[in-house]
Structures are given as C-alpha cells and as structure tokens.
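Hi, here's the filled form for the chain we discussed.

Project: internal
Contact: R.S.
Residues: 213
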Amino acid sequence: MEQVRRQVDRLCWAGILLGLAFTMTNVQRFAAAGSPVGSLQWWAAWLLDPMVSLVLLAILRAEQVTARYGVRTGGWVRTAKWFTLAATCVMNTWDAFAAGHTAMVVLHSVPPLVVFVAAEAVTDLRDKLTEAIRAAREHQADTIAGTVPEAVEPVRTAARRISFDEYLQRARQSWTPEVTVTPAWIRQVTGCSRGLSSRLSAALASEVGEGEA
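And the returned structure, exactly as it came back:
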C-alpha cells in the first residue's frame, strides 16, 4: 500500500508537470506575439509560463503537506492557485478563440484543465491513501497479537458511512466550555480523519463562539 501511495503521488505530479510543459510553448508564442526568433522579446516570452507554473507548483506542494496534518490554508492560497491555472488556460486558448478555431480551443484547454483537476485531487488521494495505510498497519498489528475480532471489518465499514453532521454531533456532546476546539481534539473525541477534522473544528468553533474571539 505504501508503494501504491508513492506511485500515485509520482504519477499525479508527472501528469501535472507534463501538462505545464505542454502549455509552455503555447504561452511563449502568445507572449512573443510574432516577434523575430532570437530577439529580446522572443527570449523574454519564455519566462512567462515558468513564472506562473513555479508559483502554482509551490502552492500545490505546500497544500499537500498542510492537508496531511489537517491544517487549513487561507483564501488567498486557493485564489492564487485558481488564478495561476486560469491565467495559463487563457493564454493557451486566446489565439484559438480569436481565430474561431473550435478544435484548437479544445486541444489547448485540455492540458490546463487536467492540471487543475489533478491539483485538486492529488491532496485528497494522498490523505485517503495515508488513512488506508494506517488502517492496514493497525489490522496487521492486531493479527500478529491474535486479537482480531470477527466484527472488526463490519465496524470499519460502518465507520466510513458516518456523515459530517454525525461527527459534528459527537463533537458537540463532548465539548465543554473549558475545552479549546482544535483539529487534534476533534480527532480524539470523534475518531474522524485528519482531512475532516479541520472542517469539523471550524464548524464547532463557529457554533461555540471561538471563531469570533
């Protein structure tokens, strides 16, 4: 399972990098605007796409780490990510739109959209695969100890169906005024995943007034 997690991570990042590499020549042509090959403007045009792509890659890498530990990023992070993806898409398809060439619009839209979808999916995939590895290790430890009850698998299957509202209700019942609501405390009292604990923490903190403080 750990090998699969590494493979998924590498394949997603490879797809993102290939998609950004594909867009580089289109963005360069857009920025060069017909300048002579080898001119200063022609060389400067090659800097535009890496400038946008490096910012995007930095954001994606940071989100990957923060999501793993249940830390929420601010609105500016998501705004920067979407803006860089949108800018890449617009610069790739502008000439095709101007020429009214539908097939070229579709062709140059696909790589930026694939990058966008992969950027949103890679963090969740890594989080879920980490949870699966943790569950497998617990199961292996129980097996070695000879203490695995027959009802373990049904209980785990049922646990996956617990809704957000049910987790939030558990947290409400456990909360007392002297408790500071944090993702770690949420996980302790509800048994939810790291990715969900930050959302539950924000929702409960808003209800009990900690968000206003």
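Let me know if anything looks off before we file it.
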